[in-house]
Write a structure and sequence with these properties.
The chain folds into three domains: about 110 residues, Nitrogenase molybdenum iron protein domain (Rossmann fold), CATH 3.40.50.1980; about 110 residues, Rossmann fold (3-Layer(aba) Sandwich), CATH 3.40.50; about 140 residues, 3-Layer(aba) Sandwich (Rossmann fold), CATH 3.40.50.1980. The protein has 19 helices and twelve strands. Strands 10-9-8-11-12 form a five-stranded parallel β-sheet, with helices on both faces. A four-stranded mixed β-sheet has the order 1-2-4-3, with helices on both faces.
């Protein structure tokens, strides 16, 4: 018998199994979500027709109330090398939109458009700044990190290097529930902070003021590129986020120290907030085992809040990469019983954790929640059910715990639904 060579991949028993399911939508959606919401911004997308259709659909679905302009780039145009000419024509059209002040040109991972030469695009057309935002989705992996890439591109171009530094001005970094920045601003002003700016936001003026702040506070841990940009400007970065009791205490004290606020006043405000948060924990404790999975990038912070409230969280997974901004939450969780923290996760890894830990509740993506519900386990879509609620300070703690307790209290209903469909399948099979 002839010797048959075995492919190398088949000889490696430890090789990672094939991940058969789509893990998320195109990550470039995150950048478009940020860019379309800026008032006076009219994005131009340089990509092929298929990407254009899919991304404009999900972008409008998530609240964009403006058109995304694009050149016609089908096979003929790509082969003819008409990318730059078509993109410049689309920029001219965008500049004629009423009130246009900013034209982000988004290039994706299509080979011909990924290499779009910035020097061949205009810097400004009429009253509008033109900024190239490179979002090669194959290299970015998750839509939260694409938000970071888009915001950093805008800040490099628009942040005013001549703006005067205001020591008691703080920049909050994160696309969060609208009430959260207001609550944080209210508390910080009582500590002596004179102004907070929140990015990504709607105002181009806030982008221009970015270099005037005394410190940067990333409320989400995936703004790696943006945080590095502020460090290059010698602006200090506050670690952590005002989440739960211990996280909020540490964050508020760090803000007070970095902005050189009155220590006595800071202590008074911090102690009041800690007492409110402790009261929430006592009134709404959690019991049970919960898996926290998703692609928002905030999964570790949510898990920390749940553990602090009394829940067991053995497994946490997220689509973002490991980073120093995430490390404090990871170490905190591992010290309190979390056995697995998975970055760049896949659906297959989440399902394996479902088999291993047998949770009382699941927070996760739509496909993972579907798997859990099939087993009669209460499951909630992380993005729509949690990311759309207050999260920070004692108010966010109360909102999150109230929702979690309410959902876990419905476990009998989930089990009844599962048994109903199981019985229906048996009846259909025997008919």
């Amino acid at each position: 018998m002839a010797d048959v060579s075995i492919p190398l991949a088949m000889k490696q028993p430890d090789a990672k199994p094939c991940q058969l399911h789509p893990q998320s939508m195109c990550p470039a959606f995150g950048s478009l979500r940020v860019l379309t919401r800026i008032e006076g911004s009219h994005p131009v997308m340089a990509t092929d027709t298929g990407c254009l259709y899919g991304l404009t659909f999900v972008t409008h679905f998530y609240g964009a109330r403006k058109s995304i302009l694009a050149p016609q780039l089908g096979t003929a145009e790509l082969m003819a090398g008409e990318i730059v000419e078509g993109t410049r024509a689309a920029i001219e059209v965008a500049a004629r939109e009423p009130g246009c002040q900013l034209i982000p040109v988004v290039s994706l991972c299509v080979a011909e458009t990924a290499g779009l030469p910035e020097e061949m695009l205009p810097k400004r057309v009429g009253e509008a700044e033109v900024v190239l935002v490179r979002v090669p989705a194959y290299a970015i992996h998750s839509h939260p990190e694409a938000k970071d890439v888009a915001l950093a591109a805008l800040l490099r171009r628009l942040a005013d290097a001549q703006s005067e530094r205001q020591k008691k001005r703080l920049l909050l970094l994160g696309e969060v529930f609208p009430a959260d920045p207001l609550a944080i601003d209210n508390l910080l002003r009582r500590m002596g902070v004179e102004q907070t700016i929140t990015l990504p936001g709607r105002a181009i003026a806030d982008l221009r003021l970015a270099r005037s702040v005394g410190a940067l506070a990333p409320l989400h841990p995936f703004y790696k590129e943006t945080a590095a940009l502020f460090r290059s400007w010698d602006i200090p970065v506050v670690g952590g986020a005002p989440v739960g009791v211990s996280g909020t205490y540490a964050w508020l004290k760090a803000v007070g120290a970095l902005l050189d606020l009155n220590a006595k006043l800071v202590d008074e405000v911090v102690e009041e907030e800690r007492e409110r948060a402790q009261a929430v924990l006592q009134a709404q404790p959690l019991h049970g085992r919960i898996l926290v999975t998703g692609y928002e990038g905030t999964e570790l912070a949510y898990a920390r809040l749940l553990v602090e409230a009394g829940a067991e969280v053995p497994y946490v997974s997220t689509s973002i990469a490991q980073d120093p901004l995430v490390l404090p939450d990871e170490l905190w969780l591992r010290a309190r019983g979390t056995q697995e923290v998975v970055y760049r996760k896949s659906l297959e890894e989440d399902v394996a954790a479902l088999d291993k830990y047998e949770p009382d509740m699941v927070l996760g993506t739509t496909p993972f929640c579907s798997v859990a519900k099939e087993r009669g386990i209460p499951a909630m879509y992380f993005t729509n059910q949690l990311a759309s609620r207050p999260f920070f300070l004692s108010g966010g703690l109360a909102a999150t715990l109230g929702f979690m307790n309410q959902t876990m209290g419905r476990s009998a209903r989930y089990q009844w639904i599962q048994s109903f469909f199981d019985e229906t399948e048996v009846a259909d099979a025997s008919a």
